[in-house]
Design brief:
Number of strands: 11
Shape: globular
Number of helices: 12
Helix content: 25-40%
Order of helices and strands: EHEEHEHEHEHHEEHEHEHHEHH
Largest sheet: 5 strands, mixed
């Protein structure tokens, strides 16, 4: 079996199933586990390096008819995969599904293409099972999914005892602001919070800042899609200039957090469960201990917080 993964979450699924040795190609963004960095890259991005968040948003809005990522068809042919794992969830965050299928049909042997579209924890687990079936190891999914489900259940059980569930706004972007979508409001609920701008199971959406301020969140979690903590912190100071920001309960109480959207919250693979545990600890540190090895949510310094 020769597998090419066209999204980081799929790469993590393949590796979680014990199939890393079968991986022959990954995307330019695949970085976990670290050992996959040695593999040939079959994609590249059209987004210039280190542009502003506002410019990235503009490029995304202007790319409605094509993905911001391109596929190296020549490299893919050279790798001769038996299985290609791709996605149809987001039109701009990975190579377009139609392009993948067109290229696959031109390859020798017509490799199988598995399309993943997780929009919740449960459908992420289903996606893991789909990868295992396509790779010919369906029995491996049971143990992997079972362990992940047990961790989710443990967080949910602890949250059942929480009576003070804060109003939470989890943002996937801040220039302009976007609510969280798909699985993220579910993570908030399981972690012991009430999401006030995102809706469980639906896509993220662009917000007006006055709508966000009117929601009066008691906790704000910034998980910018595709950004790590360091890159997100570069944008956070702009929040202090939003009318009404310093009067928010979350800001007054010092409950503004930055988390790694790239590695965790925006990546619908096994580490969504890590994301849940990071979020739960941020919201209720006394009820939810942070598992060893996971990064704690970061509280940004002023001016994002009141002086």
């Amino acid at each position: 079996m020769r597998i090419v993964s066209l999204l980081p979450s799929a790469t993590e699924m393949v590796c979680a199933l014990g199939l890393e040795d079968a991986l022959v190609g990954v995307t330019h963004e695949c970085d976990f586990p670290a050992s996959v960095a040695r593999l040939p890259k079959v994609t590249r991005t059209r987004i210039p390096h280190d542009v502003s968040s506002g410019e990235i948003d503009r490029l995304v809005r202007e790319s409605t008819d094509r993905s911001l990522y391109t596929l190296d068809a020549g490299m893919l042919a050279e790798l001769a995969p038996d299985l290609i794992v791709t996605q149809g969830l987001c039109d701009v965050c990975a190579v377009a599904e139609d392009e993948v299928r067109a290229v696959a049909c031109s390859l020798r042997g017509s490799p199988r293409v598995v399309n993943l579209e997780p929009h919740s924890l449960a459908t992420m687990f289903d996606a893991l099972r789909s990868v295992a079936i396509a790779a010919g190891v369906p029995e491996r999914a049971d143990a992997v999914v079972g362990a992940l489900e047990a961790r989710v259940a443990a967080v949910a059980k602890r949250s059942e005892r929480i009576t003070n569930r804060p109003r939470v706004a989890l943002l996937e972007w801040i220039d302009p602001p976007f609510s969280s979508g798909h699985w993220s409001p579910e993570l908030v609920r399981l972690a012991g919070g009430n999401e006030v701008v995102g809706i469980e199971g639906r896509t993220s959406r662009s917000l007006a800042w006055n709508e966000f301020i009117a929601a009066r969140p008691e906790c704000v979690v910034v998980a910018c899609c595709g950004f790590d903590v360091e890159r997100t912190l570069r944008d956070v100071p702009m929040l202090a200039g939003i009318p009404g920001w310093n009067e928010l309960p979350a800001v007054r109480d010092g409950r503004v957090f930055v988390v790694d959207g790239s590695q965790y919250f925006s990546r619908p693979g096994p580490r969504l469960v890590d994301s849940l545990e990071i979020l739960a600890h941020a919201l209720h540190p006394d009820a939810h201990p942070l598992p060893p090895g996971l990064p704690e949510a970061v509280r940004p310094a002023a001016p994002a917080l009141p002086v």
